[in-house]
Amino acid sequence: MTIKIGIPRATFYYEYFPMAQTFFNELGLQVITSAKTSREILNAGIQKAHADTCVPVKAFYGHVESIKNKVDFLFIPRITCLNGQTVYCPKFLGLPDMMRHAIDDVPEIIDTCIDVRTTRFAVWKAFYSIGRRFTNDKFKILKAYIKSLYALKKYKNLLMQGLFPEEAIKKLNNPNYNIQKKQDSTLHFAVLGYPYTVYDEFTTVDLLSRLKKLGVQITTIEQVPYSWIKRQHKKLPKRMFWTYSDAVVKSAFHFFEHKSVDGIIHITTFACGPDSMVIDYLKFESQNHPDMPFMSITIDEHSGEAGIHTRLEAFVDMVKRKKMLKMNTSEVYS
Amino acid sequence: MKKVSFPHMGHAGIAFKSLLEDLGNEVIMPPVPTKKTLDLGVKYAPEFACLPYKIVLGTYLELIEMGAEVLLAFDSYGPCRFGHYSHLQFLTLKNLGHDVEVICFGYPKREPIEFIRKLKKVSKHKSTIKCLYEFYKAFKKGWEKLKALDYMEKLSHKIRPRELKRGTTTKVYKQAQQWLDEAKTYSQIAEAKEAGIKAFNDISIDPEREVLKVGLTGEIYVLLEPASNLEIEETLGHMGVEVERSMFLTGWTQDNLGSGTQDHASAIEAAKPYLPYKIGGHGRETIGHVVNYAKRKFDGVIQIAPFTCTPEIVARTILNKVSKEHDIPVLTFFFDEQTAKAGITTRLEAFIDLLRRKRLEKNQVAAAI
Ligand code: SF4
Ligand code: SF4
After folding, report:
1. For ligand 2, atom 1, which residue shows the shortest CA distance?
2. How far apart are CA B200 and CA B152, in angstroms?
3. Distance of alpha carbon B354 from alpha carbon B352, whole angstroms
4. Whose CA is nearest to atom 3 of ligand 2?
5. Residue B139 counted as domain residue
6. Pocket around ligand 1: residues whose beta carbon is below 6 Å from it?
7. Which of A138, A315, B236, B342 has minimal CB crowding within 10 Å?
8. Is position B94 within any domain?
């Protein structure tokens, strides 16, 4: 029987799943993911997690609950630092421990720590130590690792082209998969937030597809090249030390400065620690750029369609009117 | 010199004041945070900022009203939010139109040059050597005071649950703080400490009283600032509970700026089976302290932290299991601006009742054997 590795469809899934999948498959293991977040999954998480936990981590509990009996191992690496500069939120760092001690009968958790500040080739060493659990064939591990890096690169490219993670993963796993054609859009928004929040259709009550339906083209942090972000470094008194927050804040700063989108929507979750700081940095920056429409949406476990969709529609209308007005006035003057 | 001030954090201000005055500053003592302080902070802070952020921001605004021109803060390096506090607070103050200088000190070991540059701003000495020398002298004296202050506080934890007349300990403790505040030289500090110890020893106590022992652990600010934890130590003391707190500023300073304390190392070690890595804040320490309190046969542990405090939420999640495996009851309070003292007291009473019953049962079992 092949060994089954469980990967919850939450947190790092959106950024690294193809890499992990390729690696384990190459070693001859089967990868099992949880289903998309649903009411049941979230409710299971709410039951297990401490009440004050943020929604994404509550959902994570639910995802683990839903696959724990189907797998031999759970893959929840302790990704601490990948770029030598920024780390992850404390809840991320304690994720494997929370799962191990708060959920009953969890299978063995692979919680290898990856911190590039501690040693050279930290990522390779981490993957090597994971591989050694399953095989003694060093060459096989190396091959799997190289392939997984390649998969990650392909995946990031697809994201950069504007695919959303689920689509990109489908495309990777099945080259014949037809990507939906881009529809015509009148508006272009930057929708900024942590990938595990932004792309979770359930907790965001389908925010992205809703926007698409309203004729909005969407840019997320995955389509913001690092070179743009780097140029924004100076604008913060101190670097945000959380990887995702750093990307969100600086992408927002970029769009505020270059006005290459019609509006910016920031998505955050109730009781998120890092975001409590992020929100104000963005608020202050938006005060410096009153002409750029900006909205912050807070997701919680009871987010209802009605509330969020009304706000979205109102925002879209406002931006549309603004754009029309601008076009009209510029016609008058030209 | 400009008028300098800093956030209120328990009795630490007395030591800060001594240090800053010795460097030649005019110091404005921060007021004890009140409802008004918190309201001010809440008004201008992000909704989900943690409680300490709000209290400190409120304090800054009050201090500006009182005429402070330079505000001091302390920096850290993540992954907890604390490292962004002062930067965001400074932006907020600036946006409100206040023209103050915020000087944010990092760890001297980590950024020595920056540290000296900032130090010069609050020192009347402009040559580096002189400035450092004066700082060393002032620090040493402030440190002496801080040690004495922490000692007084520990005494108050011991004596309060046994006092015959309710409230005496608190009064003596305040008096001792004042004596230490007034002490200017080393010999005066020593004298004030002696007098404080004597005053504590003079409190009439009931040595026979059955006193419970409870560990208090959690996030640093709510641990060290009684106004932020609604005077939980005093309340517990009056309920006949001896509190041992896991954190004092002297200990923190040694752990973060010096070579570290034994207590800290043993907490880290004890936390290993549950949380082997640093996650920011004091999440890992909290777990370790609970294990250690259990090993030392405490009756229970209370964890306190601000609402939305990320490291402590992680710790709380894991503590369920620690509590079961080490058979020690743990109660957690997450404080926010709506937390009311009455609610806390009720929950404390219930918890203490449970601890008393548990102890009684244990004694009976022991007697039966
Ligand atoms: S960054 Fe925010 S949403 Fe993400 S895990 Fe941390 S607290 Fe939760
Ligand atoms: S330890 Fe908790 S309360 Fe303190 S800054 Fe960090 S998140 Fe806020």
Report:
1. B281
2. 8
3. 5
4. B309
5. no
6. A 54, 56-57, 89, 91-92, 194, 269, 272-275; B 310
7. B342
8. yes
Q: How far apart are CA A203 and CA A270, in angstroms?
A: 11
Could you tell me if B182 and B277 lie in one domain?
no
The CA distance from A295 to A290, in Å, is 12
Those residues whose C-beta lies under 8 Å from the C-beta of residue B192, and which sit 6 or more positions away, are B148, B176, B179, B180, B182, B183
Identify the CATH assignment for A187-333 out of 3.90.1170.40, 3.40.50.11900, 3.40.50.300, 3.30.450.20: 3.40.50.11900
Q: Which of residues 242-281 of B touch A (CB under 8 A)?
A: 274-281
Phi, psi of A47 (to 5 degrees): -65, -40
Q: What is the mean pLDDT of residues A144-159?
A: 96
Phi then psi dihedrals of residue A163, to 5 deg: -75, 150
CB contact under 8 A, A50 and B81: no
> B88 — phi, psi (to 5°)?
-70, -40
Do B220 and B364 have their domain in common?
Answer: yes
Q: Does A242 touch chain B (CB under 8 A)?
A: yes
What are the C-alpha distances in Å from B110 to residues B77, B113, B229?
10, 9, 32
* Domain ranges within chain A, ordered by starting residue: 4-173, 187-333
Dihedral in degrees, nearest 10, Cα atoms B90, B95, B99, B104: 10
Asked whether residue B240 falls in the same domain as residue B355, the answer is: yes
Instruction: Please check whether residues B181 and B238 belong to one and the same domain.
Output: no
Identify which ligand lies nearest to the alpha carbon of B49. 2
Q: Is the pLDDT of residue A123 over 60?
A: yes
Q: Which domain holds residue B268?
A: 210-369
Q: Are residues B237 and B348 in the same domain?
A: yes
Where does B184-261 have alpha helices with state H? 186-202, 220-224, 232-238, 249-257
**Residue A242 CA, closest ligand 1 atom number:** 1
Residue B219 Cβ contacting ligand 2 at under 6 Å: yes
CB-based burial, A270-279: b 16+ in 10 Å, e otherwise? bbbbbbbbbb
Q: Tell me the ipTM for this assembly.
A: 0.88
Q: What is the pLDDT of residues A97-113, one digit of tens each?
A: 999 999 999 999 999 99
pLDDT tens profile A273-313: 899 999 999 999 999 999 999 999 999 888 777 788 899 99
Pocket test for ligand 2, best of B310, B314, B316, B336 (most atoms within 8 A of CB): B310
> Average pLDDT of chain A?
92
Residues B180, B65: one domain? no
For the beta carbon of residue B312, count every other beta carbon within 10 angstroms.
Answer: 30
Q: Which residue has the tokens 């529609």?
A: A313
B235 and B369 fall within a common domain: yes
Partner residue opposite A241 with nearest CB, options B79, B91, B317 = B79
Numbers of helices and strands, H then E, in chain B: 15, 8
Q: What is the pLDDT of residues B68-121, one digit of tens each?
A: 999 999 888 777 888 888 889 999 999 999 989 999 998 888 888 989 999 999
Q: Which two tokens stand for residue A241?
A: 């030390």
Shortest CA distance from A97: residue in chain B: B275
Residue B339 is assigned to a structural domain of this protein: yes
Q: Are B201 and B233 members of one domain?
A: no
A149 touches A156 (CB < 8 A): no
Counting the structural domains of chain B, the total is: 3
Nearest one of B76, B67, B57 to B28, comparing CA atoms: B67
B104 forms beta bridges with: B73
Does A88 contact chain B (CB < 8 Å)? yes
Residue A95: which pLDDT band, with cuts at 50, 70 and 90?
very high
The Cα-based distances of A53 to A10, A21, A320, B217 in angstroms read 15, 28, 37, 20
Residue B273 CA to residue B254 CA, distance in Å, equals 25
Whether the CB of B311 sits within 6 Å of ligand 2: yes
